[in-house]
Specification:
By secondary structure, the chain is α/β, with parallel strands linked by helices. The protein contains eight helices and four strands.
Amino acid sequence: TLFPYTTLFRSHPDFVACHNKSYVTKYDMLSEIKDGGTFLLNAPWTDAEMDKELPASMKKFIATKKLKFFVIDAEKVAEQVGLNRRINVVMQTAFFALSGILPVDTAIAHIKTAAAKTYASKGEKVVQMNINAIDQSLGNLREVKYPADWAKATSHADFCPIDDPYYKNYIHPIELKLGNKLPVSSFE
């Protein structure tokens, strides 16, 4: 196996990927990532747009934890080769390129072999579209050079759009998948 059991279930991951740009304002994805870890975001944004689109809390986590931050517009890559918005092979390729689990050439060969087997029943055209997506992925992957001032980013509007104490203290954390962080004593 590629991953030891303990690596899969540790609480401080080395690598976090966000496959849907809308999640950056919905979920707290980075609070548990280890310092110096890698964050991969699927988004069409330039660096200037990134500064506007990312919530202050996420920018602060990225900068204070000194994350390696990469972005790829996986949907654009998939659409260019005819896969519509099917981004799985694009994101897999980016993951293996960044994670260092396998040499990049070896990982890409394995992804191509798996794509050929997986999509063989759909025809050679679909297989070739997936191969083309894999081939174009690394050319569309880029590192974001974020400014140091992201470490000081603040906003009162991060994560909670409704100004109601009950919603802020109970409902919203649960919506963000942070319910496990709510102390039992707060429900008394």
